[in-house]
């Protein structure tokens, strides 16, 4: 399924107005697993995900998939911290990613109904997406990202402002997607969520890669002081 | 004072009896302005969206110019269109001067900057909301523009209505290029100007009432048809 992996990042750097946001970082993401990017606020989690997704310009270095950039972009999806709802109905939000690929309306509608049922919004198909609750919006955003069956899915703190139940529903959907073969790369600073989901952890601090280990190693026996302090709930800067 | 009162009475009488001349002039006004509005919207709304979506070198200059052109003096626009369409002008062969087409052209020039500018202001806000999503989804420029135009349609309606308001009440340019010819290019505003000049306040006031009534009813009709403020904020 994930033919575009592994993802090789070499000396990649992102700068904005002369300030280094990320890097230089080197790492390789393998074909399988669920990568969690951890770090405190402002450490560069979002910038890192955007860089991998290919929506910010690299100042230096490379981010390379096994296929070319254009086809790689077409096989990715991104879920934002604050779900962006199109000012349309739930149905039209779900069909939008398919419609811009010129999928026939009928097929797109059928897919939308299937996904709405999966996220428990089948009763709300005709409602405006902008009046949904926070949890429903994020579920809709996730379904909208998954409806194209991306090979790689990026999530930027998808549960940052959600309560326990909504978080659990999102996590269930993520694990299902992972079982279906989607490669998931997500940022979170919720240690509990990282423990529940991660198979490997990228720990970043001030734009630098601090530690990249399998989840069990990271949570039991983190190599760096900063990572241990972070896991203990200490405030690190 | 009694002049004015007489005028008001006469105006109401013209309205109530559906004076044929009044109706002719009113319909011509409406036809010219609606044509101008449709053409102007077809140009200005995509232009507004393009300015919101696309970053190019002269973007800020273009926006500043559009904003400045909102205050374009209609008489000057009329003069320029007159010169271009006159017999000796570059488009003189078309023979458009003193026809309704010339009036439409002048009105299009007057309202395009206004509509484009208001459209751009509101679409810019919508774009900042949608930006990350549409970029992430790998949409083409055209798809971005159509998405903004569709999802921002309520705000664009306001932009178009502002254009309608300016065009229907405009007199300077259409007077110059249309010539206020009876049964050919006489519209509400030019007729009011003429009747006022002649001292026939009755007809002028009657025409004035019709003008205001029409502007209001077009706005209300669109407001009602599109169910603004009824379902959600868009």
Task: Compile the SSE list and pairings.
The complex is a heterodimer of chains A (237) and B (234).
Chain A: E1 7-16, E2 19-29, E3 34-38, H1 45-53, E4 60-64, H2 69-74, E5 76-79, H3 90-99, H4 105-118, H5 134-146, E6 152-156, H6 164-179, E7 183-187, H7 191-197, E8 200-205, E9 208-214, H8 215-221, H9 225-231
Parallel strand pairs in A: 3-7, 3-8, 5-6, 6-7
Antiparallel strand pairs in A: 1-2, 1-4, 8-9
Chain B: H1 2-16, H2 20-53, H3 59-69, H4 74-85, H5 100-136, H6 141-151, H7 153-168, H8 172-178, H9 188-198, H10 201-225
Overview of this structure, please?
The complex is a heterodimer of chains A (237) and B (234). Chain A is an alpha/beta fold and 237 residues long. Helix content of chain A is 38%, strand content 24%. Chain A has helices at 45-53, 69-74, 90-99, 105-118, 134-146, 164-179, 191-197, 215-221, 225-231; strands at residues 7-16, 19-29, 34-38, 60-64, 76-79, 152-156, 183-187, 200-205, 208-214. In chain A, α3 (90-99) packs parallel to α5 (134-146). The longest helix of chain A is centred in the C-terminal third of the chain and has 16 residues, at 164-179. Chain B has 234 residues and is mostly helical. Chain B has ten helices and no strands. The model of chain B has no long low-confidence stretch (mean pLDDT 89). The A-B interface holds A 53, 55, 73-74, 77-78, 80, 84, 86-88, 96-97, 100, 128, 130-131 and B 126, 129-130, 132-133, 135-140, 143, 147, 151-152, 231-234.
